Amino acid sequence: MAAFKKGAFSIASRGKVPVVPISLIGTGKLMPNGLEDTLRPGRVKIVIHPQIRGEDPDELCDQARNAIAQTLLQYGMPVA
């Protein structure tokens, strides 16, 4: 899982709007590393997590990343 950038979380905290983390499971089989311009058929599982709110962008980012990381681990996906 790539690093999260803080921009969207800063906007959400300033605008006092919730962030809804979403986990995508199985996308690596559809678009393998190095073959980003090639799509393969397959299934993807989408997990929509509960919304999170907060005033601290760093905390929002950490909460969203943790929610997604936990789901990836449950499905045996790598979290780095």
Keywords:
3 helices; transferase; alpha+beta; 80 residues; elongated; 2 strands; two-stranded antiparallel sheet; single chain; acyltransferase activity; lipid biosynthesis; acyltransferase; lipid metabolism; 10% strand
- Radius of gyration, whole Å: 14 Å
Tally the beta strands: 2
Major sheet: order of its strands? 1-2
Structural class, by secondary structure, is alpha+beta
Global geometry? elongated
Low-confidence parts = none
Order of helices and strands: HEHEH
Query: What is the number of independent domains?
Result: 1
**Total number of helices:** 3
Mean pLDDT across all amino acids: 91
**How is the biggest beta sheet arranged?**
2 strands, antiparallel
Helix content: 25-40%
Tell me what portion of residues adopts beta-strand conformation. Answer: 5-15%
* CA(first)-CA(last) distance: 6 Å
